[in-house]
Every structure is written in C-alpha cells, then in structure tokens.
Design goal:
Strand content: 35-45%
Strand order of the largest sheet: 1-2-3-6-5-4
Shape: elongated
Low-confidence stretches: none
Distance between the termini: 15 Å
Number of domains: 1
CATH superfamily: Electron Transport, Fmn-binding Protein, Chain A
C-alpha cells in the first residue's frame, strides 16, 4: 500500500469507529501526564472524527482526573488496535476541554442514555466505594436523564503526529508516520 492510501485508510478507520461502537478503533487508550507527573492511561470511546478539521472527539466527566490532567498538560496520546487485522493507530496531539453549553448540550442530546448513565453518579470517577450502587446515593436510584449534564464535557483532540503499524503480513510488517506541518501532513516510512 502507498503512503497516501495508508493515510486515507487511517482516517476511514477512525471515522468508522466514531460511528460504530463495535469497530475495533472505537475504544482507544488515552495517555495523559498525571498531575503528579506520572503517566496515566485509560480507555475512551471515539464520538466524532472529522478529517477536514483534523479533529478527534471523545466525551468525559468534568470531575474525572483526566480533565485536571489535560487542563494542566494538554498533550495526549491515543492508541487503538485492530487485533483481528493486526493493525495499530497511534495519535499524538493537543487536547482541549470543551465545557461551553451549546457544544456540550448538542453532544449530550446526540448520545444514547446508556452512554450517559455514568455522568449521573453522585460521586466523581475513581471515588472509592463499598458497593457499586453507592455511586448513586443511599437510595441507589439513578438520577433523571438530564441530571448528568452538569458533569459532562467534550474533549477535542487535534493530532500532530499519526503512526500506523501493520503486522498483518508476518514476513513484511509496515509502519508509516504522518506529521502535521501547518495544514499539510508530511508522510514517511519508519522501521516497524
């Protein structure tokens, strides 16, 4: 495959993943620099991808540690794998926490209730519990659908480097790197 084709395939995989939660690249590992300086990694689900805007979007809880981490240090790495096809996509970029009402409300309204339940918990993500139901208070009732909006935010990532690794051919692995310079991408092969 040529570098231009790989570049197109990367964005196709990401756009598809944002639209299909069953796509392997939908769940990506997000690495940030912890407020203590240590690395921190967790899984995020891609929610929107727009190649023309160089934009990758996921949602998170405003109370989560990653918001404090990205506010302090906006550099982020996202890694996704397709184990069946032996592919890996790594993205390196800058993240921005979007807490403005129109963007948040639009993203909230376009999300399924299943995806929003976690924002309706009374406690911040990572708070120690005796039992899982304790996250919803003493009555163990999940608050109403709009209750979680105050905890919900959008994270926009603008990648500056994309790394593609294809291990599908056992005798000939391929790796490519794309580095953004202004509005263009410089592409090159790198050793796998």
């Amino acid at each position: 495959m040529k570098l231009d084709q790989i570049y197109s395939r990367i964005w196709h995989c990401l756009v598809t993943a944002a639209d299909d939660s069953q796509c392997p690249f939908n769940a990506m590992q997000a690495a940030t620099v912890g407020v203590d300086g240590a690395p921190n990694v967790r899984t995020v689900a891609l929610r929107r991808v727009i190649e023309a805007e160089n934009l990758i979007v996921f949602h998170t809880d405003l109370r989560s540690p990653k918001v404090a981490e990205l506010t302090s240090e906006p550099r982020i790495a996202l890694v996704g794998t397709d184990a069946e096809h032996r592919l890996q996509i790594r993205l390196f970029g800058e993240a921005r926490i979007v807490s403005e009402e129109p963007t948040r409300v639009e993203a909230w309204n376009s999300s399924s209730d299943h995806d929003l339940v976690q924002y309706r918990t009374l406690l911040a993500p990572g708070t120690p519990l005796s039992r899982p139901d304790d996250a919803f208070g003493e009555k163990h009732e999940i608050p109403g659908p709009d209750e979680g909006l105050k905890h919900f935010c959008v994270v926009e990532v603008r990648p500056h480097t994309i790394d593609w690794l294809d291990l599908s051919a056992a005798d000939r692995p391929e790796r490519a790197r794309f580095v953004r310079d202004g509005d263009t991408w410089t592409q090159s092969w790198v050793a796998p």
